Automatic annotation (TrEMBL):
One of its GO terms (molecular function) is DNA-binding transcription factor activity. Gene3D superfamilies: GntR ligand-binding domain-like, Winged helix-like DNA-binding domain superfamily/Winged helix DNA-binding domain. SMART domains: FCD, HTH_GNTR. InterPro entries: GntR_C, TF_FadR/GntR_C, Tscrpt_reg_HTH_GntR, WH-like_DNA-bd_sf, WH_DNA-bd_sf. The keyword Transcription applies. Keywords: DNA-binding, Plasmid, Transcription, Transcription regulation. It comes from Rhodococcus jostii (strain RHA1). Residues 17-84 form the HTH gntR-type domain. This is Probable transcriptional regulator, GntR family protein.
Amino acid sequence: MGDISALISVSAPPPQQSMPAMLADRLRAAIAEGRLRPGQQLFEQDLAAEFDVSRGPLREAIQRLTQEELLVNVRNRGLFVTTLSAADIEDICRTRAAIERAAGLEIIRSTTRAAAADVLDAIVDRMSEAVARHDDAEVAEIDIDFHEQLVALAHSPRLSRAHRTLVVETRMCLSILEGTEYATRDRITDHHTLADAIRRADGSTFGRLITLHMETAALQIRSAMFPAD
């Protein structure tokens, strides 16, 4: 099933996290980071041995990721990491735009708007430093961090929960695209402009910019992954 040895260093889950939740988090991270590749077949017995756990909690973790559509059970074939189509990429970016627009507007309505903009600007400064170092992987990671923080700063557990699976799917794309033109594209201005719209409490501009940002991302990812389309 490929190399899964990097999936773990297993330790007891923290008190607030069940074993199935911990296993789901580790599998989710392995998919996001490309250690488990799109279309890769997974075998329950191998995963159980690698995690050194019984199959009960592992099956529950697998069920969670199947519900999130990160894993798919194919009848008479087995369990696979999901693959993303061009239509999936469009849908991911469109849904992310809706969630991130809602998060941005919530921040704009809050009393912590300026502080939130400072947090986002600091992330973009880190991105700029990574661009200067030509560290494509770090640029992609910081890009994702910006959008995760944007949603987190809205302090809405439901928005964050809805956003989480979409971010994993986005990371899947970026791990495939590392080293391509998309990975090295300068995204500094876009992100500073988004933070500035929040600072100025300009919800209309923020909504327009995040929609355009996600439409552009969808086009770039789709073009790199499906150049013949």
